[in-house]
Amino acid sequence: MQQDIYHLRTVSTGGEQKFFVSFTDGNGFTQEAEISREAYLALDKCRLAEKRQENEIERHRERFELSEAQLAVRTLRPPIPMEEAITQAVDMQSALATLTDTQRRRFLLYHDYELSYEQIAAIEGCKLQVVARSIEAAKGKLKNFFDEGGEKRGSK
């Protein structure tokens, strides 16, 4: 990362604000000069834009320098074999099939789309408590489905 080539500071005295920029000249000596408010704001804006660009470049560099193993360590869920992923997807579809249409819709809005109970109630034009009961019932059915190894397939 690039070091700052200048530093900005403000000084308030007697209700008046003064603006300063300091930098190292070609001989290695630190110089400081008073500048106008407009110049200070322009330099500050440039400094912030440079910082944003440096952060973006760093994120880009980090994304391309990470190995698969490093990415796996950083994720919440480590990678799983393709066969297992397919089995899990099929199991989840079977589990969702045990829910009523309303429970499934509300559960997916809550879980996959990360909507709140309040947002779902507003969308469906019903009370918050009705949505909460529906989603909790769906969670219960899904838990039972997986606890019993999928034996409840097709039951509603």
Describe the structure.
With 156 residues, the chain is of the alpha+beta class. Helix content is 58%, strand content 15%. The protein is built from 6 helices and 3 strands. A hairpin with a 2-residue loop joins strand 1 and strand 2 (16-24). Helix 5 packs across helix 6. The longest helix is centred in the first third of the chain and has 29 residues, at 37-65.
CATH topology of the largest domain: Arc Repressor Mutant, subunit A
Q: So what's the CATH class of the largest domain?
A: Mainly Alpha
Instruction: Give the termini distance in whole angstroms.
Output: 59 Å
Largest sheet: 3 strands, antiparallel
Structural class: alpha+beta
Mean pLDDT: 84
Tally of helical runs: 6
Q: Output the strand order for the largest sheet.
A: 1-2-3
What layout of secondary structure does this protein have?
Blueprint: E1 6-13, E2 16-24, E3 30-35, H1 37-65, H2 68-74, H3 82-97, H4 101-111, H5 117-124, H6 128-147
Antiparallel strand pairs: 1-2, 2-3
Descriptive tags:
single chain, 156 residues, alpha+beta, Arc Repressor Mutant, subunit A, 2 domains, three-stranded antiparallel β-sheet, 6 helices, 3 strands, 15% strand, elongated, disordered C terminus
